[in-house]
Specification:
This is Diacylglycerol kinase. The chain is 80% helix and 0% strand. By secondary structure, the chain is mainly α. It has one domain: Helix Hairpins. The longest helix is centred in the C-terminal third of the chain and has 39 residues.
Length: 145
């Protein structure tokens, strides 16, 4: 019996090798949670995206935007956080492979992943402004400013 087969049949999931398939759905969620905790604990930009995203969603609720607008904002906020997680994963794999040596392809991979995060963040700003700007402006004008 291989390690993979033995692992798949065990009641208590262990993570002896990252190539192993999670034995249970609960183990899969546990690994995903570990990834989120790692990103939040170690990635400043992920924490910024989470904070700004929560702020945007809070503002949307305060402005009582439509459910459609709220759903679009949630998707946009989620997309930025997903891109940051993918960027973190790419950086970790590149660092694993190049082992503290410089390589142009490693730089390109990291820069392109960071560029993807930047594009998603810029697009999310545009979405946020288009959906939250008009109701926020109305609210501000109603205060007499």
């Amino acid at each position: 019996m291989t390690n993979r087969t033995a692992h798949s049949r065990s009641k208590q999931p262990t993570r002896q090798g990252s190539w192993l398939v999670a034995a249970t759905l609960l183990a899969s969620f546990s690994y995903a949670g570990s990834g989120l905790r790692y990103a939040f604990a170690t990635q400043r930009n992920f924490r910024i995206h989470v904070g700004v995203g929560l702020g945007v969603l809070g503002l949307a609720l305060w402005l009582q935007v439509s459910l459609t607008a709220l759903a679009i904002l949630m998707l946009t906020v989620g997309a930025v956080m997903v891109m940051e997680l993918v960027n973190t994963a790419i950086e970790a794999v590149v660092d694993l492979v190049v082992e503290q040596t410089y390589h142009d392809l490693a730089r390109i991979a990291k820069d392109c992943a960071a560029g993807a995060v930047l594009i998603s963040a810029l697009v999310s700003v545009g979405v946020g402004l288009s959906l939250l700007g008009p109701p926020l402006w109305e609210r501000v004008q109603s205060w007499g400013f």
